[in-house]
């Protein structure tokens, strides 16, 4: 694909050191369950029965929070529903006992990046959660006295477009909901081959609506929230979508979907800058590759209805293994592999070009990244974690040219004098690979007439994992956002303690305040200004949080030119 091929020569040397991109929760199979950390779903007493439009549901109450797990918002994706838009569930009359997570979307457990990193245990689901076709479901945590006025925060999980689910341990919503002022929802949707294979032009006919099924699933889940959340005490006119990594990609995607307008009122993007989608030609090429992997032709397309979950996972593995590693490792946020497509119906254009997509420009946006995102992806490059000044200079020169190296290093040393050489390297690399795209989104939004405010953040708190060598890695803000930084899953990443609890309260409070009002704020944080292209203001979240530029403006300009040139975007 155009973006990936042109950019791969720059990134391959770095990204081949890691076999994964972006973090979702680990998945189990029927044959194996990885139990470095046992996530036990605590049982509570039954809740009152809640009447939804589909039928009555009953969850469990834990510590003043009512929890409902695995509520289906659409039918199984098996059989005739394979490669079709989400189908409305058949109403039920018996009480649906919502005490177990649903299947995760069909996916390869071998693709999950958390299984080989220190954050792995925090992302375990319960052992019973396996990939399957009964996956279009959502989970709700609501204060037991919710009165119908509470804001609703709908989490779109990480894992790129190929892994993850809403049942990760670290996504557990009890602590956030126990504050009494917000309802938390996590959802599952189709992924990878199941959710992003567009047969609409290659096969047509019964498959004419097969584009962007993953996005259509998310839209259907948000429609379910609109139609039912008031029964759980939530305000359907005060919905925030938020997500990290691939979940951030999904939030950006939903901001570009005209038919989703009105289904959410705020948006939060954590470490997931996405600006562009596949072209129809690129999607057709992928669809042909999928059919070849399945051994199916246009003449016997009905065989697609006979596929099992195992068939889907095996074919996806064949498709992805046929791509070179460099083709799979494009810049985060640029199209590669299974990805949404501009289909002319659901998605009309790239979400951020010279202006923000009209569908989401009036939605207040909070967006940011962690300080050193790429430490989590470069664990195989041991020398990067033990750099001296000479090694830092060599790496920076190789990436950006000898003439730029000194200016870049001087800029980062001025902004982060407490960082050693490895910390500086990871910081500038992470800014180049992810911060530049995030800056592009903020600049486009800020320059689009009539746009709602943008609030920027950097999560700079230093993790104790690997004796501090991970600095502020990808995923590190999640336990703080969910106020889970001191529970069993969160302490895997944070080690707990009073300072951690204090920062967790501030971060989660700021996220909830944004969901309520469209402006983040919390006790213990400075006044959080809106982002402007002149000041590039961002909240740097740490034990002592401060406001200063998201990135040095000179670095934004240098990195943008380099990245866009390598991606073929300057032609």
Q: What is the topological layout?
A:
Layout (H helix, E strand, L loop, with lengths): L1 H14 L29 E2 L3 E2 L4 E3 L1 E3 L2 E8 L23 E2 L39 E7 L6 E7 L17 H4 L5 E5 L4 H5 L16 H16 L5 E11 L1 H10 L10 E5 L9 H15 L14 H13 L3 H4 L36 E6 L18 H12 L1 H14 L5 H27 L6 E6 L18 H4 L9 H4 L3 H20 L19 E5 L4 E4 L3 H14 L5
Parallel strand pairs: 3-6, 8-9, 8-10, 10-11, 11-12, 12-13, 13-14
Antiparallel strand pairs: 1-4, 2-3, 4-5, 5-7, 7-9, 14-15
Helix pairs in contact: 6-7, 9-10, 9-11, 10-11, 11-15
Keywords:
twelve-stranded mixed sheet, three-stranded mixed sheet, 15 helices, 15 strands
Describe it for me?
This protein has 571 residues and is an alpha/beta fold. The protein is built from 15 helices and 15 strands. The strands form two sheets. Strands 1-4-5-7-9-8-10-11-12-13-14-15 form a twelve-stranded mixed sheet, with helices on both faces. Strand 2 (50-51) and strand 3 (56-58) form a beta hairpin. Helix 9 (389-400) crosses helix 10. The protein is globular. It starts with a helix and ends in a 5-residue tail after the last helix.
Binned, the helix content reads 25-40%
The coarse overall form would be: globular
Number of strands: 15
| Protein structure class | alpha/beta
What's the arrangement of strands in the largest beta sheet? Answer: 1-4-5-7-9-8-10-11-12-13-14-15
How large is the count of helical segments?
A: 15
In whole angstroms, the N-to-C terminal distance is 16 Å
- pLDDT below 50 for ≥5 consecutive residues: which ranges? 1-22, 29-36
């Amino acid at each position: 694909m155009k973006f990936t091929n042109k950019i791969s020569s720059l990134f391959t040397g770095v990204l081949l050191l890691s076999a994964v991109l972006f973090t979702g929760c680990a998945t189990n199979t029927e044959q194996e369950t990885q139990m470095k950390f046992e996530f036990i779903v605590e049982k509570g007493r039954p809740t009152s029965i809640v009447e939804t439009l589909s039928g009555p549901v009953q969850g469990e109450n834990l510590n003043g929070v009512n929890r409902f797990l695995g509520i289906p918002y659409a039918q199984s994706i098996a059989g005739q529903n394979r490669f079709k838009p989400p189908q409305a569930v058949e109403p039920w009359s018996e009480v649906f006992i919502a005490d177990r997570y649903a299947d995760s979307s069909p996916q390869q457990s071998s693709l999950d990046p958390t299984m080989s990193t220190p954050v792995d245990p925090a992302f375990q689901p319960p052992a019973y959660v396996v990939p399957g076709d009964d996956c279009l479901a959502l989970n709700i945590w609501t204060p037991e006295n919710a009165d119908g006025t509470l804001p609703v925060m709908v989490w779109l999980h990480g894992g790129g477009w190929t892994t993850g689910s809403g049942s990760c341990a670290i996504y557990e919503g009890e602590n956030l909901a126990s504050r009494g002022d917000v309802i938390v929802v996590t959802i599952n949707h189709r992924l990878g081959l199941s959710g992003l294979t567009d047969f609409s032009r290659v096969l047509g006919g019964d498959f004419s609506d097969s584009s962007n099924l993953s996005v259509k699933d998310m839209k259907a889940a948000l429609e379910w929230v609109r139609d039912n959340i008031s029964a759980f005490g939530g305000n359907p006119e005060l919905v925030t979508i938020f997500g990290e990594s691939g979940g951030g990609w999904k939030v950006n995607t939903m901001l570009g979907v005209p038919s989703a307008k009105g289904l959410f009122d705020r948006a939060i993007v954590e470490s997931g800058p996405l600006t562009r989608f596949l072209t129809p030609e690129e999607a057709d090429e992928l669809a042909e590759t999928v059919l070849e992997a399945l051994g199916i032709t246009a003449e016997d397309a009905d065989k697609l209805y006979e596929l099992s979950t195992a068939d889907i996972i095996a074919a996806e593995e064949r498709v992805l293994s046929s791509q070179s590693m460099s083709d799979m490792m494009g810049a985060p946020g640029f199209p590669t592999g299974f990805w949404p497509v501009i289909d002319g119906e659901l998605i009309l254009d790239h979400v951020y070009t010279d202006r923000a997509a009209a569908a989401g420009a009036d939605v207040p946006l909070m967006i940011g990244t962690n300080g050193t995102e790429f430490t989590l992806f470069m664990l195989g490059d041991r020398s990067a974690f033990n750099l001296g000044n000479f090694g830092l200079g060599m790496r920076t020169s190789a990436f950006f040219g000898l003439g730029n190296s000194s200016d870049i290093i001087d800029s980062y040393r001025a902004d982060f004098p407490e960082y050693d050489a490895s910390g500086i390297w990871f910081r500038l690399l992470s800014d180049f690979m992810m911060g530049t795209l995030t800056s592009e989104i903020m600049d486009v939004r800020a320059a689009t007439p009539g746009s709602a405010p943008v609030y920027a953040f950097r999560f700079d708190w230093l993790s104790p994992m690997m004796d501090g060598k991970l600095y502020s890695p990808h995923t590190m803000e999640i336990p703080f956002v969910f106020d889970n930084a001191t529970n069993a899953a969160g302490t895997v990443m944070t080690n707990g303690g009073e300072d951690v609890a204090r920062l967790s309260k501030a971060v989660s409070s700021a996220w909830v305040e944004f969901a309520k009002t469209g402006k983040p704020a919390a006790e213990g944080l400075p006044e959080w200004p809106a982002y402007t292209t002149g000041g590039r203001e961002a909240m740097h979240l740490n034990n002592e949080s401060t406001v200063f530029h998201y990135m040095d403006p000179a670095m934004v300009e240098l990195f943008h030119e380099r990245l866009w040139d390598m991606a073929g975007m300057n032609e």
